[in-house]
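Weekend entry, working from home. Most of the wet-lab plans are on hold until the incubator is repaired, so I used the time to fold the two sequences that have been sitting in the queue since the last round of cloning. Logging both here for the record. First:
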Amino acid sequence: MSEKNIQLIVGLGNPGAEYEETRHNVGFMALDVLLEKLGGDTGNTEQAARGQKPRTKRSLKTRLFSTGGSSAYSKMRCNALTYELDFEDKRIILAKPQTFMNRSGQSVKGLLKHYQLELDELLVIHDDLDLPAATLRVKVGGGAGGHNGIRSIIDSCGADFARIKVGIDRPPGQMPADKYVLQALRSDALEELGIDARRSAEIALAVLSDGLLAAQNTYNGQN
């Protein structure tokens, strides 16, 4: 994979208010932070797109940049909420698939085709049960590691894409993994996930600015 060629950044998650503050939606959260860092208009919300008043929650909530509103760049494409902007003379597309996690690959495949991009121009941000909480890793290729969204992308597109993996640890006791990743978080746990979302956005920005290898060298040794 060549350097500085990422153009499509996909955050994985599930659409809908009931999933906003769950571990599985850290990819959505990270894209909201990244959009702010890239200077995009973050005033659009899913609620505004539906003619509803935005809810006032803590800033960690995923805003789901909308299909309408004040920004001319925010669109629904290939079953994903997308936001296009320019960064260092290059077009960048941020996308949140709305297919639900298990069918993320359908949306990602469509986005790659629509924007005429190759697999090595894709970066995916997602939660990872196999990494300890607060541990982030930059990786290219590999298996799904039990993550249904990543499995769907691999099945639809292939495995050789870049990923930012956000560790969420294993569920405690006998709690099933699906219940753990979809558990609504409160207080300290939500704050910690928000910190990880911000850190993963910083890593994504470093990938865009400095390339994958530099980001790996800088961040993969950190916890």
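Second, folded right after the first finished:
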Amino acid sequence: MFVRKPLRLFGLSLLILLLALTAVSGQDAVELSWITDLPGAEEVAARFTEYNPNITVRVDKVSFREVFQQNQIRLGSGSSEPDIVSVDAPVVASYGFRGWLLSLDDAIPAEQIDGWVDALHTSSIYNGQLLAPPIWNSAQVMYYNAALMEAAGITPPAPDERWTWEQVTEAAQALASDADADGVNDVWGLQFGQYNRIYQLQPIPESLPTAVLGDDGLTVEGIIDSDDWVKAFTWFSDLHNTLNVSPQGGISSGELFRNSQLGIYVDGGWMINQFINNPLDFDWGVAPHPYWDGGEVTVPGDSWHLGVNPNSEHTEEAAAFVAFASSSEAGRIWFDVWGVWPAHEEMLAEFAEDPANAEFPNLAFVVAAGEAPYVTPRPLTVGYLEYEEILSDAFEDIRNGADVAETLGQAAGRIEREMDKYRE
């Protein structure tokens, strides 16, 4: 499934080092600024400085929301800082549209680009230019509580067995307990990690298969209010309402799963390290991400990318850092520090081939690594923030019993109006 790239880690590190040294040769010490909330950022910055002693990276830690706020304020005003820009995958097009990212076409070795998971490379590009190389990934899998399944008389899927959503629904119904006097289940059948975000829910319609956005990157009418979307999210509504197998409200799916209150839990590969390092007190398993019977396999993925501020006073040094931070060497640092799922096919191939991963629980790494070919980019649109926010409202309303067709129709109209500003 995976093909090892000809460029090995040592050669890649050496190449990046030479690029960086060439860029800064003969210059005085340089400090780069980077606003981020990412665990492992300091370790990656420190390793880069080991290779380039005259370049330090000042890591300014802020909250997740503040990353976007600071980017909006500083990049929007033409500030020279931050030099290094943290870019969540879905806003690459938006930042590119606004001219907030420097083209890195000549800064990243072709072999390194070829080593990224394909979908992540796709979302790094806007208007034909490489603007924001990937540093993280977030491919999803299906976790299950094997003890609850056994008690419900369900045979769990094998590690290489991809269940259909139809099978998942049947299992979720068997897993869900009768509601108590408050209408709350003791055990729920199924829930997603991010149950109101298009990122996680995109495969529900996409697997039918159907589109999630028009080819122009702006049109949604006739798509998100189509019969296919209504079908997909009627199923989603039924889970939370008619079937009562998925919890409503502002719950933590991960905590429910850990507390044996959730039988099937769909979330990212990064949870594997968390479950191994902080062991669950029940038998659990992992299977590939589900799909619709007769449909296409499509898996959520992608995560953080990095770019360079075009107004930076140190664009060459910043580009050298981004080249390093998106290399497989840095990918190993991200993984070691926080279990971040890799953006690199080389690392995924190593997971799949490592004899230490032949048995469970480490076998979960192999299952998650096998999802890379099925990862699809999030909708590539300059209006992603508006698209996501409006759909999140719609998904919450649907979870709480709103009419599916009416809700999606209203969302389509709102998004179309928001997209008008990008059509001018």
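Plan for Monday: verify the second prediction. The chain has a mean pLDDT of 92.
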